[in-house]
Amino acid sequence: MAKSPQEEHPVKAFGWAARDKSGHLSPFHFSRRATGEEDVQFKVLYCGICHSDLHHIKNEWGFAMYPMVPGHEIVGEVTEIGSKVRNFKVGDKVGVGCIVNSCRSCDNCENDLENYCPKLIPTYSSINQDGTLTQGGYSDIMVSNEHFVVHIPDSLPLDAAAPLLCAGITTYSPLKYFGLDKPGMHIGVVGLGGLGHVAVKFAKAFGVKVTVISTSLGKKDEALGHLGADSFLISKDEEQMQAAMGTMDGIIDTVSAFHPLLPLIGLLKSHGKLIMLGAPDRPLELPVFPLLAGRKIIAGSGIGGMKETQEMLDFAAKHNITADIEVIPVDYLNTAIARLEKADVKYRFVIDIGNTLKHT
């Protein structure tokens, strides 16, 4: 007979979980594995709420596994290390992002691209190597192989650094990989949410000219004044869009909802690149002719490998880049999810796990 989540492993754990596709989260007792030779165990202090958490708890992508403790922007303090752990010590400030394991031997893994490993194990709603469900960071403790743990630099506040483990690396990686990090370039950022606002910060730190592309005027002051974007473009304003045609070297598209690609392709220079980071729940229409007419590229990018994630955090520390956050107590979770669904957050909710997660 299958063991209950509480009995699967020796270490008692507690968090908030979704039990079904209603997505409602409530207190949940479960367990974590004992700290293995190469494992790091840490007390979770903060966990960001990513838009993909919302998709997962409601099974909008169709592969949710319940009961589900979400959360893959997890930061805290090391409490125990395995005998073979070399890079961490008790008391270190650390984080775990979207991955907790991979095969470690395929071409991707051997090239520090664990995020593209065909056998990668996501931080939650997946199956561990021992057959049990992975559970994420809306919980009191975390155990992970040290390879998938990163150091949080001392100068970064833990709460505002947490979202960098997903939103940060998801925007940093394509800016670097697709060569959109060269001073003097002009890039567009579509959607000023959790990913978009961090994309603006990284791009500006690279010395790139940034235009925020949004459907409404509501975020203009925020984009230009607070985040330091150079210009603001309303995608529904045909005159503005026409005037900006052919001016951008690249576009980072963070929108997770269905939206037209044709106007965005039009903004690109010849050889320009439109990089898709959002994950809409239905296919987008792909107009091919404007791609041919300018040798333009539409590409996708997903998070980053562990080496690059650490590099991103170190870069963020050097340039004082953090996410703009609203810190919430854990019992506000369902309200926060409802607000996230309406895009009513600037720009990332972060749960204060350390101070508000009380065993019930």
Automatic annotation (TrEMBL):
Signal peptide per UniProt: none
SUPFAM superfamilies: GroES-like (SSF50129), NAD(P)-binding Rossmann-fold domains (SSF51735)
Source organism, top-level taxon: Eukaryota
InterPro entries (UniProt xref): ADH-like_C, ADH-like_N, ADH_Zn_CS, CAD-like, ER, GroES-like_sf, NAD(P)-bd_dom_sf
PROSITE patterns per the UniProt record, alphabetical: ADH_ZINC (PS00059)
A single GO molecular function term of this UniProt record: cinnamyl-alcohol dehydrogenase activity
Keyword annotations: Metal-binding, Oxidoreductase, Zinc
Domain Enoyl reductase (ER): 23-351
Cofactor list: Zn(2+)
GO biological process: lignin biosynthetic process
Pfam families: ADH_N, ADH_zinc_N
Coiled coil segments of this chain: none
Family to which the UniProt record says this protein belongs: Belongs to the zinc-containing alcohol dehydrogenase family.
Protein name per its UniProtKB record: Enoyl reductase (ER) domain-containing protein
Organism from which the protein derives: Erythranthe guttata
